[in-house]
């Protein structure tokens, strides 16, 4: 149900009230990949920090993983289907060209009201989705939103390309956002989003229904992506710091997209973010694209690191390029 606002109404904030995640049962270690491509555990760990990843079974589609994560987030928030009036799923690996995977999750959860749609910004999708949901909630267009990042990248990687197939895994994470009066300072404080389509060739999928009529396979210029991620993407982080009037020293946790440990640590060092404030899950999950940040948030909340009042930065870069950051008071 929408929340009607008046000019005299207190300001609203989008507060995270629940988190959830879902990972496929199958775990594929680096050692297991050595029989498939010319690689080694040492090579992968040294260059990426990845030690294993989860790979979806045939019946574990993106919507199945997303539904599991969303259901866990609802349970964590103590809410039911009747309490949600917006579902956004960030994904680059939808079940179908259409309808939106978000509508499949909506139906599976028994949510019969409100809107549901997918958002495509590749690995930056969850940051874009949180920012989008925040606009709905803070304007009174919705009261509670399920924001999901769900991916099955194992379906689109080239399993003969050792430079890319070792990087990616499958999974889903979700958060429940609730519009609340700004009484205690919690919620999404600000965000900064950017895109620059001139960089398409550096990270893309070489197919699609409107071009080749095929799904295509992921292609990446690894060195160029690394250079851009460390050299340019920090602008959105600096922007949210400026908007909120805080510095790196004020952060409690930095929860970046889990693509590559070297990228994460180099970006943190450049911004003056202490490494002990970084939440890292890339070693266990690999790069799960839009799912990586909500998966990491759920891990950190459930192991007790994330606590009420903590200042949290989320940040990601995706193919295209698209990139963004958001600052959240937990």
* Assembly context of the chains: single chain
Principal-axis shape equals: globular
From the alpha carbons, calculate the radius of gyration and give it in angstroms.
Answer: 19 Å
State the secondary-structure class: alpha/beta
Can you walk me through this structure?
The structure is a single chain. It is globular and about 60 Å long. Helix content is 31%, strand content 25%. The chain has two domains: 12-181, Peroxisomal Thiolase, Chain A, domain 1; 187-329, Peroxisomal Thiolase, Chain A, domain 1 (3-Layer(aba) Sandwich). Strand 12 and strand 13 (322-329) form a beta hairpin. The strands form four sheets. It has a five-stranded mixed sheet, sandwiched between helices. A four-stranded mixed sheet has the order 8-13-12-11, sandwiched between helices. It has 330 residues and is an alpha/beta fold.
